[in-house]
Amino acid sequence: MPTTRAAAEPTTRRPPPVRSRRMTWRDRLHRFDVRVVPYLLIAPFFLLFFVFGLFPMVFNAVVALRHWRLDDPELTGWAGFENFSRLFTDGDFGNALYNTFGIFLLSTVPQLLLALVIASMLNRRLRGQTWWRVSALLPYITPITASTLVFNVFFSRDLGMANWALGLVGIGTENPIDWRADKLHSWIAIATMVNWKWIGYNALLYLAAMQSIPRDVYEASALDGAGPWRQLWRITVPMIRPVVIFTVVLSTIGGLQLFTEPMLFDLNAQTARGGAGGEWQTVAQLIYKVGWKDLNLGYAAAMSWALFLIILVVAALNTLLTNRLSGGRK
Prior knowledge:
A two-stranded antiparallel ribbon has the order 1-2. The protein has 2 domains: 2-45; 90-325, MetI-like (MetI-like fold), CATH 1.10.3720. The chain has 15 helices and 2 strands. The chain is an all-alpha fold. Residues 97-318 form the ABC transmembrane type-1 domain. It comes from Micromonospora qiuiae.
């Protein structure tokens, strides 16, 4: 029986119209959970950052551009960049900046180098490996005030253990070293406090990064005749470069903001003078002295912004230099 044309062609059926379903309370709760809850969870961070981070920075910038003295409210007024230009001729600020960089170099460079060596030693098979790793962190968890007060006794001129130990090798037997009398000895004492506290912390950071390096790399290099020292600088340091840069940046920020150790090293810490002649007064100490002892908040705010810019520049230079020395891209 012949089929008609209509019967031969397949018929296309339209899908039934979708009926809009009314949203239930479960649907609204799911939409709220997906779209709103993530913003609510991160909102406390941004709120705290605005209140205790962004607002103080902006307010401090405004104060730095004004004459603002707590002891004489009548002197309050617009100063422009006068406070900043005064920094270039201020001998106290130049002395504090010189002390800050001196202590920074004596603490940061030995600190990171010794941390690398200690981390390399802890990365090997040792007896009591866990004990050694935990003991490396003990100085870090010690309260900084307590450790600084102990070091004050350690570096005492007449009864300190530092002079006693040096006397065993014939140094300072007749004239004990006065660690608070000049810049170099005071810098060494304060740098020793900083190094003692942070070497173990940085060593554990390096150790955690070293754990990710395959053992096959060290075995292959040993077959080629590379010793432990060459393996450290040719293999380990380039492969943990991101962590090295991270510790360099953190050490730069902490070293240039040094406050507690030099503050408590002074026998009369309330003056914030950093010694009788400012032998170890850092920029952070000077900011505290100018702002809360001399009550000149405008000039202290300008110092803090100058220190902030200096830290940015030095941290950037240290990052580039570390990246270049550890085998990074030029």
